[in-house]
């Protein structure tokens, strides 16, 4: 009789001669005992005795397994031990405790973060150390003007605080009086149907002249003068923020705050972002919180606090209201455009949001008869960056604070805003030693017709003047007249790119506001005045048309547009003797709303700078000028380059009388094409017959060019440029600054 599987109850199949059986349903197998007539499996057949772990006696009845019968050769099953519940209780208790600890940790972290954001933003987790000083623990302060209280790490005492002094950098200019540097220069612009080219040579030579004697009186930054600006408190122990241009060149600073006057020290200067830090000896001052400018949106309401036009309006705080009308961003730098009414003296004052937090610093204004009034602000994150770099803690704004009405906002902010009285003079704060450089230039203009490839000369231009420049390349004065096309600036400053302010900078930026003319030329009907009868049969005297016949004339109107020039520099590689600098340039006119810019000039350049001679060796620029007006758009590709031709060292140059200009550079123009006598004369109807403000017309200089010379116009800085080339009503070539 066949047995049954103890697991599933299925009848076993016929066993093997050795007694081995295997269930065909569940796969269970066993060897029948010798008592049933089966011999044990010999070892040479590979059957080993079943291990004890396979014993069926160990399976509890609760799992549906019956004890193996004794007839199968297994000992009786031992009863399963009872399970203890103590370990389960301990495990549950440990899990609950661990969860409670995690929850308490999360709550504690949240409270700490909330308290930290409401009190202050730590610039660094380490103790604050002012450059040149040591940490001295924490100072408590009382909240003032509605601001939250907290603690700030103290800095060195006011009496030990050093004033700002510019660093000597490795990348800097030097212009010895006995050295003359000559460069070859080329400019090309692909105008519609023609290629306009300027080729020539420029020369720079250092002099022994004193910069103060060269700068004109109306631009004299060296002569002592007085002015005022605005600042605001960012730390209770006497740290104020203002604009760099307010205090640059200052020989003394007075801070008037809450009817008290303090002597001030300029302890940090960031000319790249036009920011400065002034310190006074005071404690427990009400201070302003600094917002995150990345959260500021277009049309957000702001208020400007400052002390404008004190000589006329008096030394009382003025508050005006406006909105963020534009956000200008380039290469990580951001500037706010605002329509709030501000005036001279507002510079350095805060723009605050309805919560009373600083979102920007008033920087400059543009106003005039032919332009819309607008102002610009340094964004608050640039203020944060300057404070972080110097490891000075400040109060970071909490976004959840409620908005305040006008009187509440004024009460909260006014006690933290200060009037700055500035005296500037020679050797003032932030000024580097300046050198007077004598400059000369000789240029020839060419025009190439794209249809026939004819290249004709259009005149020769000479240029000369003095440049007052510091080692960083910042030009304080330039008397040279000629300017580059496409609003690229004076030719004399072609080789004077800005260098970094310190040795640790591998990237740096410059930006400035400019005014560009928008010249619109229209053709209007005109009638000639009556004249005496002609004696030449039907023609009036002097070749005039007969009286009464209609003719046409051109009229030009000028609108001055504000434009923001932004330049980004970076050192891409350096050796012990040479540095490669990349340059990104952009000049964009600023308009209200989302209007397409009238002018958008951009391009990239690579500069090779000799670190031994302290001068540039070469530069190559490629870019484009995009012009938009009344639905018409024109894009002009631009190429420009210069290369150092020679550097002459002559001891006689140093002894040359300082007021005698060095010889002009020698320039040999390439062979020119002489056009046939039948070549049509270029039209002159595109020359403006009316001039913009502060612009005077001047006839073209006499030139040996075979083609009729073009008309030239003197720019606002005296630069002479070819007459504008018009295309669909747009001025394409204009050298006005």
TrEMBL record:
User: Which residues fall in a compositionally biased region of kind Low complexity?
Assistant: 47-59, 684-700, 708-717
Bias kind Pro residues: ranges:
660-683
Q: Name one GO biological process term.
A: proteolysis
The GO terms describing molecular function are: serine-type endopeptidase activity
* One Pfam family hit: Trypsin_2
Q: Show the InterPro entries listed in the entry.
A: Chloro_Bact_Ser_Proteases (IPR051201), Peptidase_S1_PA (IPR009003), Peptidase_S1C (IPR001940)
Tell me where the transmembrane regions lie. 88-115
SUPFAM superfamilies cross-referenced by the UniProt entry: Trypsin-like serine proteases (SSF50494)
Q: Which intervals of the chain are annotated as region Disordered?
A: 37-59, 653-737
Q: Which UniProt keywords apply?
A: Hydrolase, Membrane, Protease, Transmembrane, Transmembrane helix
UniProt keyword Hydrolase, yes or no: yes
Report the protein name in the record. Serine protease HtrA
What species is this protein from?
A: Lignipirellula cremea
The gene behind this protein is: htrA_1
